[in-house]
């Protein structure tokens, strides 16, 4: 346990590569680690963690996968650290509220969208890619389960590229919350909010952009206006030809929700439970759709980072 007051750089550690890129104003993309540790099955998860970093590099940006290891928030992981995230048994899932305890007690864990957004912004990274955000769960009136992702995005100046929110959630309710909390949303070449595994959720969104440069312009607009430090969600759908079959999705999701209810799965365990059920129940098809969505998001995030960066790749 840490007993004395620690300077900030002892708990927040950018890798040498990330620190250099940030110092030079070169493009950097933050990546979260919970999707690796809790969202994807082994051994595929490690391959994906490595692949996502490669996609960022191919686009001329520096990847910064974020996780807490032995009480230090790492901004950018080396190969051995990525492997720990993908394989360490019992690794924690850390939301924003878990960070102080993890840092103080020397714990390790993967960071969710809420924790990753905070740490990325804290480190000076503006762009972040993930699969699908957390949000308001179905049955909210009974459980009051709303992901901390939404609250953090309402008070963090970050741009998160995602395929909407996970379709296991109550999507209309989540969009209402995002509206209330002042989180901006732009559809990337779409007028409809994406449906994570599905190309569309069927819900309309108000702003559509066609290029990464337009996303960077909106970010400049946020800064020019000032005001509350809210996020920008760039909603990028999985391509239609790579989406999960909607009928299969609906059928297996209904089964998954019933199973979660029966087995009384709640709290942090519910999202990994539902995602895992979908992978098994669709014979792996949901995994392929999830990966297609994440790959696309990472690519777009790297392009936005390049457009945002004062120093072009
Ligand atoms: N995107 C994915 N798979 C995931 C997640 C996102 O494609 O597993 C993770 C993110 O870390 C997100 C978390 O923050 O799921 C939401 O968890 P909860 O519903 O417990 O807040
Ligand atoms: Mn929750």
From TrEMBL:
Which residues does the record give as Mn(2+) binding sites?
145
A GO cellular-component term linked to this record: cytoplasm
* Cofactors: Mn(2+)
Q: Which domain of life is it from?
A: Bacteria
- Where, by residue number, is the active site? 32, 166
State any GO BP term from the record: nucleobase catabolic process
What start-end ranges are recorded for coiled-coil regions in this protein?
A: none
User: Self-association or partners: how does it assemble?
Assistant: Homotrimer.
PANTHER family xrefs: CARBOHYDRATE KINASE PFKB DOMAIN-CONTAINING PROTEIN (PTHR42909:SF1), ZGC:136858 (PTHR42909)
> For this protein, what does the record note about how its cofactor is bound?
Binds 1 Mn(2+) ion per subunit.
One Pfam family for this entry, by name? Indigoidine_A
Q: Which family does it belong to?
A: Belongs to the pseudouridine-5'-phosphate glycosidase family.
- EC top class, in one word? lyase
- List UniProt keywords, sorted A-Z: Glycosidase, Hydrolase, Lyase, Manganese, Metal-binding
Give its E.C. classification number: 4.2.1.70
Q: What residues does substrate bind to?
A: 93, 113, 147-149
Task of the protein: Catalyzes the reversible cleavage of pseudouridine 5'-phosphate (PsiMP) to ribose 5-phosphate and uracil. Functions biologically in the cleavage direction, as part of a pseudouridine degradation pathway.
SUPFAM superfamilies with a match to the protein in the record: Indigoidine synthase A-like (SSF110581)
Spell out the reaction equation it catalyses: D-ribose 5-phosphate + uracil = psi-UMP + H2O
The record's annotation in InterPro entries points to: Indigdn_synthA-like, PsuG
* UniProt keyword Membrane present: no
Q: Which GO terms describe its molecular function?
A: hydrolase activity, acting on glycosyl bonds; metal ion binding; pseudouridylate synthase activity
Question: Any idea what this protein is called?
Answer: Pseudouridine-5'-phosphate glycosidase
